[in-house]
Amino acid sequence: MNSPFPWKALPGKAPFVLPQDRPYIEAFNAERNRNEANRVRTDLIPEPFFGRRDAPVVMLLLNPGASPRTDAFHGDPAFRRRLLADMRGMKVRKHFHLTDPEHGPGRRWWERTCASLIRCVSQDVVANNLLAVEFFAYPSRSFNHGHLRLPSQAFTFELVRRAIDRGAEIICLRGERLWYGAVPELRTYRRYCVSHNPRCSAVSETNTPRFSEILRRLR
To answer: Whole-prediction pTM value?
Structure first.
């Protein structure tokens, strides 16, 4: 890839922010009247993407959520070590949350989202062939970071362009307009689709226009 892999520089303790992103996030969080729900959580580990970076199926999202259950898992040393290792890893890996032995909040969400795919193939097949990409890598209770551009996002957006170049199936689950702005090539890419219901994250025959093609690529 043209953009260097930034996440190997992720600190091992809070604040969990890449050095190149830190000035922008600190300025955002320091704005007067900042809504607490939108504040970037630097005490939680960012989650820019999960899965093989050469996967045949790619899902586009906005940013990782934050909740009391998320806090509890990120506070567990064993979970934190595994997640940090995955985020810093240069090697191709399975989708972290779909293989998380602790069954944390991420695994529960992803199993619901991919339930139809898992029924048709298996959880292991999905975990081996899916790349999930977050538009904004850092967690918050709610998303209000569309105008904020971070240096690390250059790598994120190139992941999606590389997916286009290799002919991957790409599904946008969240943030269609923001993804179009960041990667305009998506507008004319024939293997791209958007969920029918943006409030529903399920990848299913009724909610996903290219479900049969996605299933075929997983197999």
So the answer is: 0.94
